[in-house]
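Give me structure tokens for this 347-residue protein.
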Amino acid sequence: MMRKLRELAELVGGTVIGDGEVEISGAGAIDEARPGEITFVASPKYYGKLNETRASAVIVSKEVSQAGKPLLCVANPYLAFAKILSVLFQQPYQPRGVDPLASVSPAAQLGKEVTLYPFVYVGDRCRIGDRVVLHPGVCIGDDCSIGEESILFPNVSVYPGTVIGKRAILHSGVVVGSDGFGYVKDGRKSVKIPQVGTVEIEDDVEIGANTTIDRATLGKTLIRRGVKIDNLVQVAHNVVIGEDSVIVAQVGIAGSARIGSNVTLAGQAGVADHAEIGDNVMVGGQSGVMNKLAADAAYSGTPAIPHREYLRVANVWQKLPEVKKTLLELENRLARIEAAISSGKEK
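Here you go.
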């Protein structure tokens, strides 16, 4: 989609330096962008490339005012670039209807302008909202609800009773509503605890490929509005994830954990069952959250501790071999001194 630079500036609330009439039809990285495309520079270390790039315009921070090409100055270049990409590459929605090879229960309710590709299955009493897209191999169990303009990519499985809000995006292989991992021991035998709860996913949630979200034992597992979950994440039964939180790849969240709003869990972090994480918390990669983390702070390590304290601990870890060597030398010296003192007493 072709846009003039001044139009893009209005979209992102930026200021144009240079020719605002230049036409932009695409985008690219600063080293690869071509004429007619826009790029961005978010870090001062790349300012030297402003006059080298072939792009027709560059998105920069407001502190930059000179270059050999038109500039779009904004407070956050990366955010502005994301918004501009959405405009330049947005494709108008064209509904394809229900393919003859899709299987839809007569008891299901389909909204307007839906797209159901071949080999989609929609169970009894399901409610599919307007302009929903279900790609090949999607399976929607009985009594599910999918909100309008949601997109489910190939081979997504939604178990019975699941509720998915508006504008949700579920990538390939996502499983929502499978049984929580609940067992109780009867001697050596593991007895399954029936998982009779549900999963509710609110509006504007995106879930990455092959992520799994378990149904609650009782009640519901809840993913609140605006949550973004990466690939290969495990969310266990009765977990609650607060609004606008970001869960990065390979995170594991155990049963009944409570994650606050605007929380970031970095890659491979683990959250123990019944742990609580306050609002606006950042948890570092491969950290282990064992109990409760207070709001508005950053944590790292296992068990997770305040990030600054973790850095001090990590600094000590690096010196442990040297410390061990010193301690051994001190022990040997002390042993020799004690031996000498003992020998003198014997005389």
